[in-house]
Design brief:
The protein is mainly beta. The chain has 1 helix and 9 strands, in the order ββββββαβββ. The mean pLDDT is 94.
Length: 141
Amino acid sequence: MAGTRTMGTTLTMKKAGDEPADTVIAHLTSIGEVNGEREEIDVTTLDSPNGAKEFISGVVDFGSFDIAGNVIDGVQVSALYSVFNGQQNRDFEIVTPSGTKLELNGYFSSFGFGEKTTDGLDTFKATIRVSGAPEYTPASI
């Protein structure tokens, strides 16, 4: 097989506190890339071979990823906006139709309401800042 489709991928915000259930964030039009980038630690000394800089691997930062979606009734968007305003770290889960799963912790570092135009859709967008390392589970074959 040449690849797998991502149509049908879900993003779920796990319940916290007195919330009755997890929130599957509905009507998403995109879920951005989750990328890790490892810092480098300079260990160059005055006697480094050939006068060349030397490095070792440092900590990894998984950065942020964007989500975007359509507003249907506003209730879900209001709940997400409340989480943004509450400055809470939450657990999230991204699952593809093939069963690949990415579990991570993070918080909404930005939240926006889309541009309103004469022929546009009511939309929202947000950025989730990843805290710690995501856990990747491949689809079972």
